[in-house]
Amino acid sequence: MAEDMQAELGADRSLLLVDDDEPFVKRLAKAMEKRGFLPETAESVAAGKLIAQNRPPAYAVVDLRLEDGNGLDVVELLRERRPDCRIVVLTGYGAIATAVAAVKIGAIDYLSKPADANDVMNALLARGETLPAPPENPMSADRVRWEHIQRVYEMCDRNVSETARRLNMHRRTLQRILAKRSPK
Questions:
Q1: Is the confidence at residue 2, as pLDDT, over 60?
Q2: Domain ranges in the chain?
Q3: Residue 40 contacts residue 17 (beta carbons within 8 Å)
Q4: CATH for 2-125 (3.40.50.1370, 1.10.3720.10, 1.25.40.20, 3.40.50.2300)
Q5: Region 27-42: what's the mean pLDDT?
């Protein structure tokens, strides 16, 4: 079985994991190593860009929101340095609009956190145009509302005042909503 996995991964099994959640990235690195990858971790945009510049990997998993910036910067650099890199974007905030932007600039897929190692591996190795199975538990109405607010927020270039105006919502109310984690 390990040989089948090695063949599916190819000769270059290098994997870059960029996430500022240290316990998560360490667990994911260990799990991906057991699955045949050769992981290297970075906990910031700066560290991720440095690795992407000097040693662009065959595979990458990049969190969108990092403490020092946006993971999309790492995705763009990876796409420039290694066009064949298979990149999966993780988002802990359910920001579908941003995840779609990531796919447009070169990511092959995006996953909502928490994602387990099997989800990540399946996304990295997915080939072809097969459609994913429908979700077992679709989004709640609160989640759909959250997604809509996030989409408008991203379309307004993350300008709170403009987003509030377009949503016909008080700016302070919008700020409170944006400060919270996404509903289930």
A1: no
A2: 2-125, 141-179
A3: yes
A4: 3.40.50.2300
A5: 92
C-alpha 29/C-alpha 41 separation (Å) is 7
> Which of the following CATH numbers is that of domain 141-179: 1.10.357.140, 3.40.190.10, 1.10.287.110, 1.10.10.60?
1.10.10.60
Burial of 136 (0-12, 13-18, 19+ CB in 10 A): exposed
Q: Angle CA(103)–CA(108)–CA(111) in degrees, nearest 5? A: 80
**Each residue's pLDDT tens digit, 127-164:** 765 555 555 666 678 877 887 898 888 889 889 999 99
Q: Give the bridge partners for 87, in sequence order.
A: 60
How far are the Cα atoms of 29, 130, 141 from residue 60, in angstroms, in the given order? 11, 21, 32
Burial class of residue 124 (count of CB atoms within 10 Å of its CB; 0-12, 13-18, 19+): buried
Helix (DSSP H) and strand (DSSP E) numbers for the chain: 9, 7
Q: How far is CA 44 from CA 89, 121, 179, in A?
A: 14, 22, 21
Q: Answer yes or no: are the C-beta atoms of 46 and 22 closer than 8 Å.
A: no
